[in-house]
UniProtKB/TrEMBL annotation:
This protein's name: Beta-barrel assembly-enhancing protease
Organism annotation: mine drainage metagenome
Family matches, as PANTHER family: CELL DIVISION CYCLE 16,23,27, CELL DIVISION CYCLE PROTEIN 27 HOMOLOG
GO molecular function: peptidase activity
Keyword vocabulary terms for this entry: Hydrolase, Protease
Keyword match DNA repair: no
InterPro entries: TPR-like_helical_dom_sf, TPR_rpt
Pfam family, one: TPR_16
Length: 581
């Protein structure tokens, strides 16, 4: 079967790279839970679920399971009003409010929760953030001082304590507060990073330089945020050679993320104690995300942005988390706040376009991508993404035009162009312009020999058109050798066997394809045709009925209905002829 996937840009990888910070091996499980088996629409309260405190509680839990904190908070607060000392309700209400970014309301619930559970870490960290935001540094310090030093607390307590001292201009106490992090080698990069920020903010340049030097020794494990801070410090303090050396070494180990680093930033990444504390909460957010505790990572991200709203790396991470949760409108609202001067800006705008398309606003997505295509730094990605979106909506000629513009950006042919020729070839083939499609697919193979998706698409197309049968079958077999668990490619091989009259082999191969990709209409359809050809008519009808369940396009649906009504047909097997190589 011909797939529509194409190679090209890796937007998710590059955006996620913007959210990297010092890695810590701390796992914290997400505390969300859910109820199954109920239909639900995001943002809409459940009918008749809030008629009693118990009903409100269940509705709130279910809304949390559906990643809808707004509705969850509505119902959980309703239940909490009837039972204000219920610790579980307090915990769930706190999480829902904080997840929704309503930190002021969450703080009220957090203070209530701490009355009954002084060890409630999330509540204490939230209250500490609010106290610090209000300039009440000693109160923030006191909040976390009570927490047991385990799990993420072992990291967050020293960081919050250190920055609370910096809020009072007590530099030595701030540095001393970081000392507990020395107990674990895994925490040392984080200690050095925050020590460097503190020394830099205090104008202790020699100490900051030593910290950055120690931090940047192992670039393989170095966080992107640390590179940003160190290179900016070096440029600002007349050590441009060190900045360039660090960028060079980092690029060798992290070529994908190094491309988004600014080579001109000179200002401090932290200009105040609040900004430093934001970095601490952001570090916690990244740690939680690495532990796949995404609900809590989002909350920590919200707390970081409450302290430092224009922290692009954190904005990118929060938006990415929201997108992963299906909260696309909220994600776009955060992406839109990233300033044009930030390295994350172009990729954030690309993600906005993708989300607009996912939300049904394809015209808005196309307009955004055409605007982005005017920016040289992101022009290639914008055109590639534009082509992909147009192709997904069967706007074949427009898609081909976008890919043509992308190809024209390359001064000379190179391997990286293969995906654009492949994608344009698909668009031309679907538009019925086979000579142009064939030329592009052959060009893609010339640039990337034996690429399995190109082998599959071109081989399938030739088989379908009765062309180059032997070569086409060899190409598909080679694709299957490389990707034996790709149902679409295995389907192509089965269809090749069917079209050339090898029906038993076709059935066996297509059965494997269905096992690999059971909910694909075309693969089930093909298996039905092969079964019919071997005389297994009842099984064939069953597969055709299954194919209809999986929503084929209009043309294929019509063929399936015809076959179910009147039986299948058995086309004459294709034979190798003069067009074979």
């Amino acid at each position: 079967m011909q797939g529509l996937a194409a190679g090209g840009t890796t937007l998710r990888q590059r955006l996620c790279a913007l959210a990297l910070a010092a890695a810590l091996p701390v796992a914290l499980a997400s505390c969300s839970s859910g109820l199954n088996g109920m239909s639900y629409r995001l943002g809409q309260p459940l009918a008749n679920q809030g008629d009693s405190p118990a009903g409100a509680f269940l509705a709130g839990r279910f809304a949390q399971s559906q990643n809808d904190p707004t509705v969850a908070a509505h119902y959980l607060l309703e239940a909490l009003a009837a039972d204000p000392e219920n610790v579980e309700l307090l915990q769930r209400s706190l999480q829902a409010l904080a997840d929704d970014g309503k930190l002021a309301e969450a703080e009220t619930v957090a203070r209530q929760l701490l009355r009954f559970d002084p060890d409630a870490a999330l509540a204490a960290l939230l209250v500490a953030e609010q106290d610090a935001r209000d300039g009440h540094w000693s109160e923030a310090r006191d909040q976390v001082a009570k927490l047991p030093r385990r799990g993420l607390n072992a990291v967050m307590v020293p960081l919050i304590t250190a920055w609370s001292y910096m809020g009072e201009d007590r530099v030595d106490e701030a540095l001393a507060a970081l000392e507990p992090l020395r107990r674990s080698a895994a925490y040392e990069p984080l200690r050095l990073f925050h020590s460097a920020l503190i020394n830099d903010l205090a104008d202790r340049r020699a100490a900051a330089s030593r910290d950055y030097q120690a931090l940047s020794g192992n670039t393989m494990r170095l966080a992107l945020r640390s590179v940003e801070a160190a290179t900016a410090f070096y440029r600002r303090t007349g050590q441009a050679d060190k900045a360039q050396d660090l960028l060079r070494r980092y690029a060798l180990d992290h070529p994908e993320t190094a491309a988004i680093l600014s080579d001109t930033q000179r200002g401090r990444v932290v200009n105040s104690a609040k900004a430093g504390l934001a970095e601490a909460y952001f570090s916690g957010a990244v740690t939680l995300r690495q532990s796949e505790a995404n609900d809590l990572a989002l909350i920590f991200g919200h707390m970081a942005l409450a302290l430092q709203p224009d922290l692009p790396s954190c904005q990118a991470m929060v938006a990415d988390l929201l997108q992963d949760m299906g909260r696309l409108g909220e994600a776009n609202a955060i992406f839109a706040k990233i300033q044009p001067t930030a390295a994350a800006y172009p990729t954030a705008r690309l993600r906005i376009a993708l989300n607009l398309d996912s939300m049904g606003d394809t015209d808005g997505a196309v307009a955004e991508l055409k605007r982005l295509a005017q920016i040289p730094a992101v022009k290639l990605d914008a055109l590639s993404t534009l082509g992909d979106i147009l192709r997904s909506h069967h706007r074949w000629i427009e898609a081909a035009s976008a890919y043509s513009q992308a190809i024209a950006l390359f001064p000379a042919p190179e391997r990286n162009q293969w995906s654009f020729y492949y994608s344009r070839g698909i668009a031309y083939e679907r538009a019925g312009q086979w000579p142009l499609a064939e030329a592009d697919l052959l060009k893609a193979l010339d640039l990337m020999p034996d690429e399995p998706h190109v082998l599959n698409y071109l081989g399938y197309s030739w088989i379908d058109k009765g062309m180059h049968l032997e070569r086409a079958q060899r190409m598909i077999e080679k694709a299957v050798e490389q990707l034996p668990n790709d149902g679409d490619i295995v389907d192509s091989l089965g269809w090749a066997y069917y079209r050339t009259g090898h029906y038993a082999k076709a059935v066996a191969t297509l059965q494997k394809a269905v096992e690999l990709h059971p909910e694909e209409a075309t693969i089930n359809h093909h298996l039905g045709d092969a079964l019919w050809a071997t005389g297994r008519h009842e099984e064939a009808r069953y597969q055709w009925q299954r194919a209809l369940v999986f929503k084929p396009d209009a043309d294929e649906k019509a063929v399936l209905e015809q076959e179910l009504a009147h039986g299948g047909t058995l086309p004459a097997p294709l034979k190798a002829g003069k067009t074979d190589d």
